[in-house]
Amino acid sequence: MPMPSKRRSVLVQSSVEACTPPDTSSASEDEGSLRRQGRLATSTPYQGHSHPAVEHWFNRVIQGSSTSSSASSTSSHPGGRSVTNSTAHAALNANAAATALADLMAHTQLDTPLITDNHSAPPDVTGLSERSSIHLERPQVGSLRGASRSYNHHASMMETADVQQPDPNQPRPEGQQMSPLEGEPLGVVTNWPPSLPAALHRWGSTHPKSPCLTALDNAGKPVYTLTYGKLWTRSQKLAYTLLNKLSSRNEPLLMPGDRVALVFPNSDPVMFMVAFFGCLLAELVPVPIEVPLTRKDAGSQQIGFLLGSCGVTLALTTDACQKGLPKAQTGEVATFKGWPRLLWFVTDGKHVVKPPKDWHPPIREASNDIAYIEYKTSKEGSTMGITVSHSAMLAHCQALTQACGYTEGETITNVLDFKREAGLWHGVLTSVMNRMHVISIPYSLMKVNPLSWIQKVHVYKARVAVVKSRDMHWSLLAQRDQRDISLSSLRMLIVADGANPWSISSCDAFLNVFQARGLRPEVICPCASSSEAMTVAIRRPPEMGVPPPGKAVLSMSGLSHSVIRVDTEEKLSVLTVQDVGQVMPGALVCVVRVEGTPFLCQTDEVGEICVSSGSSRLAYYGLPGMTKNIFETVPVKPSGVPISDRPFTRTSLLGFVGPDNLVFVVGKMEGLMVVSSRRHNADDVVATALAVEPMKFVYRGRIAVFSVSVLHDERIVVVAEQRPDSSEEDSFQWMSRVLQAIDSIHQVGVYCLALVPANTLPKAPLGGIHISETKQRFLEGALHPCNVLMCPHTCVTNLPKPRQKQPEVGPASMIVGNLVAGKRIAQACGRDLGQLEDNDQARKFLYIQDVLQWRAQATPDHPLFLVLNSKGTVASTASCLQLHKRAERVAAALMGRLNTGDHVALVYPPGIDLIATFYGCLYAGCVPVTVRPPHPQNLATTLPTVKMIVEVSKSVCILTTQAIMKLLKSKEATAAVDIKSWPTVMDTDDLPRKKCPQTYKPPTPEMLAYLDFSVSTTGILAGVKMSHSATSALCRSIKLQCELYPSRQIAICLDPYCGLGLALWCLCSVYSGHQSILVPPLELESNASLWLAAVSQYKVRVTFCSYSVMEMCTKGLGSQTEALRLRNVNLSCVRTCMVVAEERPRITLTQSFSKIFKDLGLSPRAVSTTFGCRVNVAICLQPNRLGKLAEQGTSGPDPTTVYVDMRALRHDRVRLVERGSPHSLPLMESGKILPGVKVIIANTETKGPLGDSHLGEVWVSSPHNATGYYTVYGEEALHADHFNTKLSFGDTQTVWARTGYLGFLRRTDLTDASGERHDALYVVGSLDETLELRGMRYHPIDIETSVIRAHKSIAECAVFTWTNLLVVVVELEGSEQEALDLVALVTNVVLEEHYLIVGVVVVVDPGVIPINSRGEKQRMHLRDGFLADQLDPIYVAYNM
Questions:
Q1: Distance CA 1330, CA 1335 (A)
Q2: Are 4 and 1439 in contact (CB under 8 A)?
Q3: From the centroid of its chain, how far is CA 832?
Q4: Three-class HEC string of 675-696
Q5: How far apart (Å, rounded) are the C-alpha atoms in residues 988 and 965?
Q6: How many Cβ atoms from other residues are within 10 Å of residue 70's Cβ?
Q7: CA distances from 930 to 324, 933, 1171 (A)
Q8: Which of the four pLDDT bands, split at 50, 70 and 90, describes residue 208?
Q9: Which residues of 237-258 are buried (b: 16+ CB within 10 A; e: fewer)?
Q10: What pLDDT shows up at residue 830?
Q11: How many angstroms separate the CA atoms of 1213 and 812, rounded?
């Protein structure tokens, strides 16, 4: 698999990161060692050529590829799963290579091949175990991606949904109905205290010297031993102080029952314990939380919400901790994001007061009042508070005492977090009930010395230790110092996370090493617990005479269907789990179905474990609905009868009851990922990833696995931290191995695998990865990976079926169908020119040059043009006579040298020279061709275009200025073009003042007047021929539509070289006599407010601009409207601002422009769009009429916006929907059809007329259509019929021109001046640009709009196809570390909104996507640049 390519700078990690090894200590819960005995070793050594040694495997895959259900591919190759991940540089050097690679991509199936007799297994790229081949009972592919539940609901939404049926062979449970399992009865011990405060009171008075808790420093030295006497007196002092010494406005601050936050560091168990029992004695409710280190800790905001909802106003902490908290300017503790305002109280000695002799805290029997609140973070990242009552707390302590056989005065070593769960239950609560001595090992000490807990067990002869798998794992890594240690004193080693899939290997490995040091195998006691149900099950210590521990080897494939199937250890696709012992005393346990009604499971079925016991009377604080669901579940038998009248608590543990009534846990609800209705456990996937060797590229225990919902199914995402020294190739190789290992072991595809730099994943409070925060960052594009591999082609199997093209319906049936359905045939026309009487003097003249001569005589001093420079001052002007005289000089210079009919290229910057030489050519009988001059700073790319137009237009002469003439013949120009082959170049700067003898009169108005050359968005250079009659008709039509008279002023901010821009600059003013204020768009680059300031200064009512000008104003002036107002810029004069374009109206841009400049008086109705194209430069213009003129009759209605269903549009259907409905696309009318113009919508293939509800090609018939292509550079044959086409049915006489744009007509409810209902034309996009994918027609702009919305740093986007792969190019307007965040976001959004799989994501710098002078994207140029590897991308990701 070729690798993704990346610009070097992205790889460079800052030196700090390179030096500090990440905190692997935070290896967390996910630590665990290898779960699989068959260790995945590498079998393919990395060879030193361009990509990892996968060719062999690749070829094998291609031969043995299973043709799986492939609804997933793009157009031409329905079976293709594109497999690739390639270096753009290597692959794209030669086009041949590109095509070969693309073919491979299109025809390779990256699905683990089904292993049949004639193919051996694929070579072991993951290095699967020592065995030579993999034995996989791989179910048939159908079952593999069984129909997803969640997907069926959406079938109706997804066009033609391909719902896969579940595989009939999938395993189903066959066992008996399980019966609830009861723990042994809770023994009644006479001297058990009636409540925990009572126990504390008893030990504090009777055994005051007895040690309660020993705290250690970071060197492992005991710092302080808290005795029961001290604990009792200090707790009393604190309770008295809290109740009596804190007041606000003479009212006590706290009342019994109020909640108080406990903010203590992990290294200070003593202060925590005093604060906790102090609160209990004061009848306050402690809420222990983590110390917030920064204002933006992962999950800290959620903790704030919890504190707010609990009504916490006071936080207890230590002096040292309070000093370390972030402070505001006032010196007080800063308020953290999302937190309520808190009063911070330091509980150290000097702040608390000794109570008077007669004050005693109330010691009551355990009641159902809340004792404390423990926080818990859900899978989605929200934090809930679990309320534990006094009676539940006591019952749990009693059950633990009985289950663990705790006796008075025992010593226990606790490595866990004492603030919550097992650390709190054993190390703070049960220990006090039994007067035990706890040695508390802080996390910071474990990081420095992982053996510390074992040393303390040895020193203190501890009988019990409470640890997690990772503590055992770490101590194995530090074996060197284990010599003189004995663990023979231990009677119980409680493994708190014994329910994790990798705890068994930690236990086994730990036993192997420490059995020699006195550790007895039977003392290892895994237990299972959850915040909601507290301890669910624990393996009893050996002296209780319990059955021997059990071990189950289960088939992964069975587990994914929630079925238990025992398998053999040799296989890789098995999960080995250990039991977590027996049910707790006094508890009733059952297993229920995870979804829907809680039916009891069968004995061979995995479900959620539920518990009912005295210690399970808990609740979520302030969430009665969720409390009912979780804490008051009523399991039922298949008949629907409840199994018991007791409510059960859902533990969120997934498991089953095995032989000997042992409880087995195979996963947690938090880690459950349901992909295509099969269940996978995040922890299992982590274990598989950890087992892929070599592990030297990523940190073990720093791997997060979660699922995201994309296109109606869950998709698996794996994120790991990469070591700073691993190379790109190494990491990529490891990633490919992980993908294959997960695919072969779990039979599920990974959607995205991302590697992030060391130490950048959000941490949970005590190490470990904050999964929900990681997921949030992934979805927001804030993860900043340094390597990413997306596999949508292999994962996404629920795409709708590609559309099958129906055999074409003939045009006649189409018309009949429309008539029957009552649909109009889609045609419309502007006002009839014949009936429009106007006093148009210019109509007398057949030729535009005659109009100029007439104006020069009739109104010689009437100003026609005024050009502004970037400072806003007038650079040059021209009256009718001045323009005529300048044109005569040019004609005189040409007449002797050129023949009539010769083509002349005019290479001028925008200005009067250009207009004067244009008329000079007409006077001399030559044909002008306007050409944009080359850019002096960018000759290499702009000069060849000039050369090409000059050559293609067969110009015999170039007219230009002296400066440009020098440029054309300069040394720099030689590098770009062959300057010797220029035709004659004349400069017109100092022409002699000659009068030409007489101007040329063309024999007929059908003669060629000028050539209009431009480059289309698809990169084709085409010149169209405009005859004299078409030129006059164009001017007359625009004059009538826009009501242009000599008294008018209009402002034009357009380029004058082609299309409507050329007509407005050079033709319209001369024809209608109005004055044009000309603003060259280039000048806006140095002064963005130039155009708007001119409009305001000259009080212009009608103005024209392009989208690029509008964008420059929106981006450049968006924040400066206030400054403009102070400069007296006022736009209330503007009645119409028309955007000249050859594309779908950009509705968001026009709306934001209107919104921004509304403050300067711009009317929201003023902005409208126009539409023209090569065959007819002005089909629609939308002049708005505001105020009085509107009543005088020529007004047009406002442009209307409709919302169409984007999915219907892909099938060439137009379905109107409500604004805001899903898949709705807003389209703005392209303008009002000009007088004399007729428009019809025709089928692109049959050329028959279409009805209103169809999308088809816009055809136009009008006296100002161009008469034909002069030449189309590159594709002559394709365009022969563009100018004279006839319908194949219906009106077969009219001659139409094909615009090459898809659109539709709608009759709106608006009426125009004549009382007729107004027909609106909606242009959807260029036919040449559409993408045919999966049998449907996509418009690039729609995909691009979705992509731009995906992340704030995407500045621009362009899409195109490359051998049936969709390529998305995004410009990154942020730091380069964000580049890889975009890959997943772009892939997700295109899948969700367009049901397309992105093949390649290319991230480039801003400005790389080429844009033409009209502001339109040149996607084909971009495609050529991509294939020729000229984009210098930041990153290229090839999705597999």
A1: 12
A2: no
A3: 51
A4: ECCEEEEHHHHHHHHHHECCHH
A5: 10
A6: 19
A7: 72, 9, 21
A8: very high
A9: bbbbbbbeeeeeeeeebbeeeb
A10: 86
A11: 18
For residue range 593-644, what is the model confidence (pLDDT) as tens digits? 998 899 999 999 999 999 998 776 789 999 999 999 999 999 999 998 999 8
Contact in structure between 347 and 286 (CB atoms under 8 Å): no
Q: Is the peptide bond before 442 cis (omega within 30 degrees of 0)?
A: no
Query: How far is residue 696 CA from its own chain's centroid?
Result: 30
Alpha-carbon torsion (933, 1180, 1114, 1048), positive or negative:
positive
pLDDT confidence of residue 480: 65
Burial of 985: CB neighbours in 10 Å, binned 0-12, 13-18, 19+: middle
- Looking at the chain, the whole-number percentage of residues with pLDDT higher than 90 is 59
- Residue whose structure tokens are 């082959």: 981
How many degrees, rounded to 5, is the angle at CA 497 between CA 493 and CA 500? 125
- Which of 582, 792, 775, 533 lies closest to 671, judged by CA? 775
What are the distances in angstroms from CA 1089 to CA 1084, 1111, 1119, 1134?
7, 12, 12, 16
| Cβ–Cβ < 8 Å for 355, 235 | no
Please tell me whether residue 936 adopts helix, strand or coil conformation.
helix
- In sequence order, what DSSP letters do the residues of 712-746 get, joined into one string? TEEEEEEEEEEPTT--HHHHHHHHHHHHHHHHHHH
Using one digit for the tens of pLDDT, what is the confidence trace for 181-207? 999 998 877 778 999 999 999 999 999
Residue 791: pLDDT over 90:
yes
Neighbouring C-beta atoms of residue 1245, cutoff 10 Å: 10
Structure tokens at 1375: 């730091």
Burial call 162-195: b when 16+ CB within 10 Å, e when fewer? bebebbeebbebeeeebebbebeebeeeeeebeb
Tell me the CB-side half-sphere exposure of residue 113, using CA atoms within 13 A. Answer: 20
* Mean pLDDT value across the chain: 84
- pLDDT tens for 77-104 read 333 333 333 333 333 343 444 444 444 4
CA distance 1038 to 1060: 10
Highest mean pLDDT among 64-73, 296-305, 707-716: 707-716
Task: HSE, CB side, 13 Å, CA atoms: give it for residue 946.
Answer: 33
What would the two tokens of residue 838 be? 């106007």
Helix axes 1090-1097, 1107-1117, angle to 10 degrees: 100
How would you classify the pairing of strands 927-931 and 903-907?
parallel
3-state secondary structure of 1356: strand
What residues are paired with 608 via a beta bridge?
A: 592, 654
* Exposure on the CB side of residue 1384, measured as CA atoms within 13 A: 33
777 Cβ neighbours under 8 A, 6+ residues apart? 762, 783
